[in-house]
């Protein structure tokens, strides 16, 4: 996915022609704001899901992130280096989530939870 993002970034640099109807995509990427504005050290899982969806469905709309349009529209400074590195950051986040789910499987938790008796009066 990193190579695809590099290609998109190159296309954005070569041409300024991308669809002007990308405003909705910027709002879809709202879960990523904390990460690309340096307010968070890692992207959220919601951010990664939305980012992956945008890359698959409307990748040229990411030009608005890289050319400063998103920063102007949203009124916040966006760290374009972080935006460009989002695929790698998301991969790390997904790997950590996978490790956590493997370390503490829900079936193991169910085996240790006490049985809850039915309320009084219910057989």
Can you walk through the features of this model?
The chain is mainly alpha-helical and 123 residues long. It has a domain of 81 residues. 62% of the residues lie in helices and 0% in strands. It is built from nine helices and no strands. The longest helix is centred in the C-terminal third of the chain and has 18 residues. The mean pLDDT is 77. This is Protease inhibitor seed storage LTP family protein. Pfam families: LTP_2.
Protein traits:
123 residues
Shape: elongated
Oligomer: single chain
* End-to-end distance: 56 Å
Instruction: Indicate the structural class.
Output: mainly alpha
Question: How are the secondary structure elements laid out?
Answer:
Elements: H1 2-14, H2 23-28, H3 33-36, H4 45-57, H5 63-66, H6 69-74, H7 80-84, H8 86-103, H9 106-112
Helix pairs in contact: 4-8
């Amino acid at each position: 996915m990193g190579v695809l993002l590099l290609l998109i970034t190159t296309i954005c640099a070569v041409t300024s022609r991308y669809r002007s109807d990308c405003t909705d995509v910027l709002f879809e990427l709202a879960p990523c704001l904390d990460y690309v504005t340096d307010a968070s050290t890692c992207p959220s899982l919601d951010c990664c899901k939305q980012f992956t969806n945008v890359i698959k469905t409307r990748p040229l709309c990411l030009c608005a992130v890289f050319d400063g349009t998103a920063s102007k529209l949203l009124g916040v400074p966006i760290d374009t280096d972080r935006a460009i590195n989002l695929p790698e950051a998301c991969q790390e986040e997904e790997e950590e989530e996978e490790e956590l789910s493997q370390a503490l499987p829900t079936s193991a938790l169910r085996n240790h939870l006490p049985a809850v008796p039915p309320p009084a009066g219910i057989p």
